[in-house]
Design brief:
Length: 279
């Protein structure tokens, strides 16, 4: 695996990649260089034939991520970058919009990754931590997790993805407004109750073990089937039923011709474990 400045990437099992946000001394808080590198990591893994499932976690014992590095943002953020370029409000607004769009695109790379992403959260998981985790396909947390949609506490509406994705993830709009308007902290059991996470484990190590168990299970299956299922589920979430059915038909008119179908069926008859070609 390639070496990165702000992320640790290794292969704990065949066809499984583990990505760790690696700035534990700052509670894995993000600044611009980090979210640009996050996109580089996930764009690379998305196209790697050696990867079929990805685990995303935070290094250290205290936090998945505390969110945006507010100190760095106050010194080198978009307002500072746009200062002095123009006194025209509209032109400043265009520059800020472009910055936000780039930021959104970097975080969305987790969602757009062709491979399923399992997000493991522990400790502090504020702000950007929710933006990132709502892009993941499966979410797991430890009992010590502290979630918060924190942006209103710094005078902003969350703008990198949580307000767009969280209502679709949990489907309980009253609860989404509750946590988003108040910025209150909530824990793993509440997250499990509303469907934000699939599992709550005793500690980070147990949560990572559960993620690896799931990732191994996904990596053993046909990559054509798994990646197709992710694509079709995401399309169904964002489109009308009729459009989704039509898209599924077109998608599978190609996918059904894969040799993986025959291999999977024969292995079921013979009670053997199928092996699938790299994709």
């Amino acid at each position: 695996m390639a070496a990165y400045k702000h992320f640790l990437v290794d292969t704990p099992a065949p066809f499984v990649a583990h990505v760790q946000i690696n700035r534990p001394q700052k509670l894995n808080a993000f600044y611009e260089e980090m979210w640009l590198e996050l996109k580089e990591v996930f764009d690379t893994l998305s196209l790697s034939s050696d990867v079929r499932a990805i685990i995303l976690s935070g290094a250290g014992d205290r936090a998945f991520t505390s969110g945006l590095d507010v100190q760095a943002a106050s010194q080198q953020g978009v307002l500072q970058q746009e200062a002095g370029k123009s006194n025209d409000v509209a032109r400043k607004a265009v520059g800020i919009k472009r910055h936000v769009q780039e930021f959104q695109d970097c975080i969305s790379s987790v969602e757009k990754c062709e491979k399923p992403v399992i997000c493991v959260m522990h400790g502090i998981t504020f702000g950007l931590g929710l933006d990132i985790s709502t892009c993941a396909d499966i979410r797991i947390c430890s009992k010590d997790v502290k979630f918060a949609v924190k942006e209103v506490d710094i005078g902003l509406a969350a703008d990198i993805g949580t307000l767009s994705r969280l209502p679709k993830v949990v489907g309980a709009f009253s609860w989404v407004k509750d946590v988003s308007l108040s910025a209150r902290i909530f824990g793993g059991e509440e997250a499990l109750r509303v469907g934000f996470v699939s599992y709550v484990l005793d500690n980070k190590a147990a949560a990572l073990n559960k993620a690896l168990e799931l990732a191994n299970l996904l990596a053993e299956k046909s990559p054509i089937a798994v990646q197709g299922t992710k694509e079709l589920l995401n399309h169904a979430r964002d489109n009308k039923l009729a459009d989704s059915l039509r898209y599924t038909g077109v998608w599978n008119s190609a996918a059904i011709q894969t040799s993986d179908v025959e291999r999977a069926m024969l292995s079921g008859l013979k009670k053997t474990k199928p092996r699938f070609e790299k994709l």
